[in-house]
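PROTOCOL LOG
Step 1. Enter all chains and additional molecules of the complex.
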Amino acid sequence: MSEPVRTHCPYCALQCATTLHAVPGGGVEVSPRDFPTNRGGLCQKGWTAAEVLRAPDRLTHPWVRRDGALVPASWDEALGLVASRVRSLQAEHGRDCVGVLGGGGLTNEKAYTLGKWARLALGTRMIDYNGRFCMSAAAAAGNRAFGIDRGLPFPVADIDRAQAVLLLGSNVADTMPPFVQHLAGARRAGGLVVVDPRRSATAALCADGGGLHLQPVPGTDQVLLLGLLHVLVRSGRVDASYVGSRTTGFDAVARSVADLWPERLASLTGVPAPLVEQAAHLLADAAPVHGGGGAMVLSGRGVEQHVDGSDTVAAAINLALALGLPGRPASGYGCLTGQGNGQGGREHGQKSDQLPGYRSISDPGARAHVAAVWGVEESAVPGPGVPAVELLARCGSSVRALFVHGSNPVVSVPDASAVTRRLRSLDLLVVSDLVPSETALLADVVLPVPQWAEEEGTVTSLEGRVLRRRRALAPPPGVRDELEVLADLAARLGCPVRFETEPARVFDELARASAGGRADYSGLSHALLDDDEARFWPVADGVGTPRLFADRFAHEDGLARFHPVRPGDPAEDLRPDAPVHLVTGRVLAHYQSGAQTRRVPALAESAPGPFVEVHPRLAERLGLHDGEPAEVESARGVVVVPVRVTTAVRPDTLFMPFHWPGSANVLTTDATDPVCGMPELKVCAVQVRPLSPS
Ligand code: SF4
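Step 2. Run joint prediction.
Step 3. Record the structure below.
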């Protein structure tokens, strides 16, 4: 590479803009680039992203398991083995015995190809992706309310102008630090309201007049939101004109919160009634209907990863609609997508219930459209599969083989030890990855893939902006792009359908497949995006759509839907043998399962391993001491981690990050939201005690 290459960070959905420069002796280094989302900022993960390219254990050739050990293999040997095992397993057990778990970090082109490949080359219904654990609750609620799911239906920069921001279960100060600058306006106005059971780095921004931190009992976010709506209705602060002209279903929702006054809810949520009143009026004061400068309601995984996550997001959207926010200047509801391509990853057919363009796989018209683009009969497209948690639960029973792309479920999924056992019991586990992740180490076949700086493609940021990812250097010899590998495997499996391998041509096909769908990329192409003016989908005549809902919502009648919800309970109640809540989350240095960031020395040094945060009162009662090991046990397993004594957590709650094997997700429950399949990763019941002397 002779010229610097303009691209974006490989990690989170903020997709900070970067420039890659060649360094003497090979490789690249990263520098930040001015862009509306990051304005020249990068977090420590972004600054060090190029180091993963040079990880000493980078995979540079396929591996196959022989006599219990992974040994090097040629591509022909590895793919020949995969094809013959798939053929014989499907001959014995049927096509659905092979599953595919995709990833929210794959480019749009790879996500699209993986969905098409699973359905046509494997002929299986069993495909889903790890974004199920990330986005499904907000996606379900957004589709239900607005008829469309674009994480933020407005540019991130619109948040700057909001006078109040209600931030629900999101610790952006650690997960996407450059985002914090967009909260400065709300903080200056004293209007940042953070809902989090833990005083996270983000919640701390509310101190000194920045706003309010509401610290509910884990699992009671929805109750709290209903209480906020109760205050608005009771005090006549609803935007009646907006509700009457742009929405349906308000009356039933208003009735449903009539008896949920904050004093009554305080014993459930632990949030004092005056704070709830204050937060509700702070939001109302900022709403355009009351002459305010704008108010935003933003949700994150903390409120979404629950068995009632989709209804909790519905409660947040109800609040936003009642105040007349969606579609108004500096106002609205949005979901802060987490994974780098969490938005695009869910739009192009990796989900068990969807085809490209965010189309329902059960809709005959959608099936016919996509089948025509794929050049097959509609009957050749398999029907809906099962969400990721159920797919993993079937491993070793009805699912005999699994392909994993861009995911490390051994660390990142709930009840991780049980999932690990199931993965071990498969007849065939094929993992495509760039490093030997914990999941790759269990595989029968490991296929090395290129990294972000070594590939061409596109990703879609949390605001629906489609961005070009550009190749700055060649992958190591021996690495093959997934687009080529999937095409090769399709041919070996006897699939007559053509699979494009050139990213720009894959994108063109993806755009045709999405045309007319809920996520319509039909006006886009690599050539259009190459002018560096990233565009928000949908695009018409080369012009994108930064803001949705100004005049109408995406439902046929143009109206948004209120959705009545009644609070449920977490999957697990506290009980004598598990009397404390565990909430899980992230730290600044690491991304997702940590498979990449744990390989960056500076990040590993700054956050070397898991820990558990314990309130001083609980620590004193249980004899736990700062820095000493504790056993944390749930119904799924037990982990040993050092204690951090801190007032950041509630006395009834522990906090543990999940980026390491054998940490938080050994304890979490795989109970899921029946609407969307989101697992309850954020709260479970545990016991904590000092490590007993052995
Ligand atoms: Fe930006 Fe996210 Fe990358 Fe950090 S991890 S540099 S916040 S895109």
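Step 4. Note key features.
The mean pLDDT is 96.
The two ends are 57 Å apart (CA to CA).
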